[in-house]
Amino acid sequence: MSKSTRHPSFDFVVLGGGSAGFNAARVAADLGKTVAIIDGAPQLGGLCILKGCMPSKTLLHAAELLHHARDSARFGLRIPKVELDMKVLHAWKKQVIADFAGYRDRAVANPDRFSLFRSHARFVDQHTVELTDGRRIAGQFFLIATGSKVSVPSAIPGLCTTPHWTSDNVLDLDFIPRSVIVLGGGIVACELAQFLTRIGSKVTLIQRSKNILRDHSTAASEVVQQAFRDEGIDLHTDTRITAIRARGRTGTEVAFESAGRLLVRRADHLFNALGREPNVEGLALATAGVRLTPSGRVRTDRWQRTTTPHIYAGGDVCGPHDIVHLAVAQGELAARHAFGVPKNQLRPVAKAPLLSVVFTDPPLATIGAQESELIAQKRPYLAASYPFDDHGKSILMGQTRGYVKVIAEPVRGRILGAEIIGPQAGELIHCFAGPLTLRATVGDLLRAPWYHPTLAEILTYPLEEIAEKLSTVRPT
Fold first, then answer.
1. 263 and 283 part of one domain
2. The domain spanning residue 40 has which CATH number?
3. Continuous segment of H or E residues that includes residue 365
4. How does pLDDT run across 2-53, given as a tens digit for each residue?
5. pTM for the complete prediction?
6. DSSP alpha helices (H): ranges in 200-341?
7. Which residue of the set 321, 325, 430, 452 is catalytic?
8. Residues 6+ positions from 386 with CB-CB distance below 8 Å
9. Which of 248, 274, 300 is the last residue of a domain?
10. How many CB atoms lie under 10 A from the CB of residue 419?
11. Does the active-site annotation cover 61?
């Protein structure tokens, strides 16, 4: 931009200081560019640090410790009284958030690298944004990284007019609610429904689809469903909500159809966990020529450019997956592409192998191609699985739910994907991350040492089964 403009002008203007925005700004500053970060949130850090990954996993870890302590008698542990002090847990969670947010705040507020504007912005033309305080900022390049917000579907009767919690409220609890109705069966709904149950709440979970975690295999979903029911969650799937209404001054009543019957559930609190949507309201994207996809995300190309080429987007606002490591990679790519890093040194953010982890107990993790995807594509494959209830380490741990599944190409045995539902699945799935990226085969993995007794050695059993089916795999 010309320095003669009457507005402050920057090489790179970033809307949003979360994972995508901060890392894009960091890269641009490292390239010697002038960078403005515009973020009007009450606290800097973005969803992951403030209201997502860090607080939720802190609470889930505490609930898991509580659950294992209550289940410790079979190991000969005599713990006379196990109880949770929510105020202490709340304080610990706030300390964890403060540690991460403080680091981000210090980094973003560094005047030698960034100009920070604590405000919201909207486009007034393709090279200018107006802040909520009336100031205007010009930029040569922009990055839209405004994240996502909780979705409140208007099609659900009574939801919009009935007071309800979101994940923000659940993650900020300093008391144990007596009863909660959870709407939804996605990752956030499932993780926090189990958390609430384990701390002592009576939980009803109502899911529209036939299974919870519907983006995963039916077999894996059924393992989690059984665990939920065994822990006392009143779980209803394949439902249709007919009415939601307030009951008294604080309670909520939800009526829904399930298996041909009309059911009613009541609770002190209603938790809307029906998903999130891109946070684009108020940005005036049309003014800048930035178009959205049919699902409401910002449309981008493989270099993270929007339909206005000097305006980029990264993170949850554009997707296609709301995952932190992808948001970071998208933001970094956008900055490097904007400022002319040679294309032979750039690589679009890989859509595969996709890595996903659900932090329920048992946890569920997948990577790469899954069976349903391969069947839909009519691609040949070999698959083998092995249950945790027949594996030494998981048996001695008393954590025998689930299985590990390996999926491979049927000629050479190249690893295509894996699914793990069981103890430490989120850690074990990374045993496949390197091999998938390097296009390794079943034979390659079997040549590696696997220590006994470990959870990881269970992976060798499906690998060996697939190897037996392959006529062309020859260890060297």
1. no
2. 3.50.50.60
3. strand 364-368
4. 444 567 999 999 999 999 999 999 999 999 999 999 999 888 888 889 999 9
5. 0.93
6. 218-230, 324-338
7. 452
8. 403, 404, 458, 461, 462, 465
9. 274
10. 27
11. no
